[in-house]
Amino acid sequence: MSPVSLRRICTATVLIAATCASNAWAAADRYTLDPSHTTVAFLITHVGYAKTLGLFEDVSGSLSFDQETNTVSDVAITVSTASVNTANQARDKHVRSKDFLSVKKHPEMTFTAVSAIIDTNGQGKITGELNLLGQVHPLVLDVQLNKADKYPFGHKKFTLGVSAVGELLRSQYGMDYGVANNLVGDSVQMIIEVEAIAD
């Protein structure tokens, strides 16, 4: 084979690979979280007796999803820390204070992740980073893709339904109030329920 022919084959191979990569990238559609059907909640132990449930009422974000490869990518979720609600005003005020979320100094916490592949059963793990109280640490979420289909009414756009759970140690982020004397648990269970609408 002549050097010229070899160069042509190599050039063609590179172009085909680039085209395939471009098509795969283009296949990933962008989705925006539906705030009216998105919940970011948590469970934390109180004095060892029972777990207190709380949630954040102001959540926004987006992600990309490739239906052909079942890949979730470019996840970005922002939570307003001041929107915490534990169904008790006095407790909420304390949680917003510098003992816990310090909302005046840190009005947002964010979760970002690059990519994760969902298996044929709709299950997967997304490893990302949680920025909380100005500190960034890895956070792994177990994800279940519940449904990916056209919405049956209203906007009628293609919609993803996703459930995710994870666990973090709040002391890792410098939030250590009540840990030493076991008044408030260190481990926080995260519960996330999302409907994301195609842009």
Main sheet: strands, sense, barrel: 8 strands, antiparallel, barrel
CATH class: Mainly Beta
CATH topology: Lipocalin
Question: Number of helical segments?
Answer: 2
Brief write-up:
This protein has helices spanning 3-27, 89-96; strands spanning 28-33, 39-46, 50-56, 59-66, 71-80, 84-85, 108-117, 123-132, 135-150, 158-169, 184-198.
Which features characterize this protein?
alpha+beta, Lipocalin, 8-stranded antiparallel barrel, disordered N terminus
What report would you give on this structure?
- It is built from two helices and eleven strands; from the N terminus they run αββββββαβββββ.
- The longest helix has 25 residues, at 3-27.
- Strand 8 (123-132) and strand 9 (135-150) form a beta hairpin.
- The protein has a single domain, classed as Beta Barrel (Lipocalin), CATH 2.40.128.110.
- The protein is α+β, with helices and mostly antiparallel strands and 199 residues long.
- An eight-stranded antiparallel beta barrel has the order 1-4-5-7-8-9-10-11.
